[in-house]
Write a structure and sequence with these properties.
Strands 1, 2, 3, 4, 5 and 6 form a six-stranded antiparallel sheet that branches. The longest helix is centred in the N-terminal third of the chain and has 4 residues, at about 30-35. About 5% of the residues lie in helices and about 55% in strands. By secondary structure, the protein is mainly beta. It has one domain (about 15-110). Strand 1 (about 15-20) and strand 2 (about 25-30) form a beta hairpin. It is elongated.
Length: about 120
């Protein structure tokens, strides 16, 4: 049996936690291509208070909206600033438990409820 159950690569990163309200977490997604692969009811892992702790959540809602952002085309004209639409994806996640890779002398422990907040 392998020691590590959850193994994440940088490409697996969805985004950053934007807000927390009791057991609901709002994640600002950075990769729109990854968001299209996420479904309602999928599980996500959020890094907890330590490197050995993950908060496990259930995707409850995904929203996409457009917002205006600066467009950096890398041109030489620094006097011209262009603003254009950019998609903004948010995931609403309900925390269901805490997973720890190590807890005392035990390994791979899951407990219902969030012990900390992201």
């Amino acid at each position: 049996m392998a020691d590590e159950i959850l193994i994440f690569e940088e490409a697996d990163r969805i985004g950053k936690v934007a807000s927390v309200d009791t057991s609901k977490v709002l994640i600002d997604a950075e990769d729109q291509n990854l968001v299209t692969k996420i479904g309602i009811g999928n599980l996500v892992a959020i890094l907890g208070a330590t490197e050995r702790e993950y908060l496990i959540g259930l995707v409850e809602r995904v929203t996409r909206s457009l917002r205006d952002e600066l467009i950096d085309e890398g041109g030489d004209d620094v006097d011209v600033v262009e603003i254009g639409p950019s998609p903004s994806d948010l995931l609403r996640v309900v925390l269901i438990g805490t997973y720890r890779t190590v807890q005392g002398d035990k390994k791979n422990v899951f407990k219902r409820g969030a012990d900390s907040f992201p």
